[in-house]
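Structural prep section.
Before we set up the soaks we want a predicted structure of the protein with 2-phosphoglycolic acid in place, mainly to decide which crystallisation condition to try first. Input record follows.
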Amino acid sequence: MEILICKDYDEISAKAATAVIGAIRAKPNLVLGLATGSTPEGLYARLAKACSSGKVDFSAVTTFNLDEYVGLAPDHEQSYRYYMNKHLFDWVNVDKANTHLPDGLAPELTTHCAQYEAMIAGAGGIDLQVLGIGRDGHLGFNEPGSSLASGTQVVTLFRDTIVDNSRLFDSEDEVPRFAITMGVQTILGSRMALLLANGESKADAVRGCVEGPVTAMCTASALQLHPNVVLILDEAAASKLQHLDHYKWCQQAKGQLAGRL
Ligand code: PGA
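Run finished without errors. Recording the tokens verbatim:
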């Protein structure tokens, strides 16, 4: 795992944007995995700006989102389709026909999950997956206890997640109890993963992800099995890492091997 410690949220967003823009320039028909939540908003704002100034071209990019609430229509303000249009898709020159999210209104959820998984495979797999992390260590909506071998699946949300996400709904009762999410194996199948986290509330989850045992109790810990993952963190999110000094040293020392890797 490569760990980059940033001074603040702005720097996290800037570094993540540089990585995504670089990946699209290197492969214009990139298959990009996307996340929702507060964390990637700064990244998406930067991508929108870069696209409008001609620095990146989304016209051949295909996207797959991690998850969607069961029961919310695409035009529901709290659906993740709505979020993605609002924060990214309406601002970049991506072909919306090439932007995919699980369908929270699918009549047969299990069949739909298998279809979503097949669509990802059909697109050639995910080249770069953007990730956030939940306070409970979830990746996508893979809550504690979710199988580390899972493909796209229907999950029951954890109470912590419902409480965290209720800030965006009129009341806690309105937060859906179920979601469709890419599974942990789907995420591990991406060729590169970029996990962003900021703030002290994520510090325990980040520690579990990086230094904890690989366990379904913190599904982000499965990223230890991913061959190419970069965590972009601020000091607060990184504050509980036992080997923080070492990670900072690695970050500094990397330049010394420039040209030899
Ligand atoms: P957040 O959510 O970015 O809103 O903190 C992250 C997540 O739950 O994965």
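Observations: Residues 37-39, 132-134, 138 surround 2-phosphoglycolic acid (CB under 6 Å).
Flagged for discussion at group meeting.
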